[in-house]
Amino acid sequence: MTSSSPNIVAPPLDSDERPPTAILRGLKKHYFKPDGSILVEALRGLDLVIPAGQYCAIMGASGSGKSTLMNMLGCLDRPTAGQYLLDGIDVSGLDDTALSRARGSRIGFVFQAFNLISELTIVENVEVPLFYQGLPRAERHDRAVARLEMVGLADRLSHRPNELSGGQQQRVAIARSLVTNPAILMADEPTGNLDTATGDAILDIFDQLHAEGLTIIMVTHDPKVAERCQRIVMLEDGNLASDELVGDATP
Q: How far apart are CA 45 and CA 69, in angstroms?
């Protein structure tokens, strides 16, 4: 059984007129053989602009480059060539420490696997990103509780992940992704491990977050999930195959 969607309030916005959250210019990602020759051209000079507050789906067949693009946008990897501006900052050439800092402060992640730490309560799980930012314990706790209340889990704060349903665990993962007040929320097949009804309830949360102005990029293979987004970007062989607006350009 799934509970009704809570009333979601996204992190506050700095301005109604924000610059694009992500700008990619000629982005390339190559993987090389030991002899230095190119093994795979995963991205082949991609140009893409994602406005602040947009809800964008990335689709494509296996090997199309969508996972590589997700890694680039999420600052999990660097491009071989080209430029990536995240919230107006060029992150394409940052060293490991600076890239990790940008990732931790500006990007929230929600994955198909919930990636929760079984030994911790859900409050402690949501606190983890703030621990790595060095925030005081009391502030970490207060912010984690606020995010869990936001996703409708105020009555589960002392529970551990194995005491929750799959849908509840994904709500914890969403709360964890929001606790740093990110500029962009990256979601990789977030309903892939859930039944249809529970998945729809999770997508309702994304819809509400988008309505409040949060930039969301979702990698999905499911056309029904993609249709809930404003925009569908289709990749093929590392290139942009199509780019379609399916809703209003602004939240």
A: 11
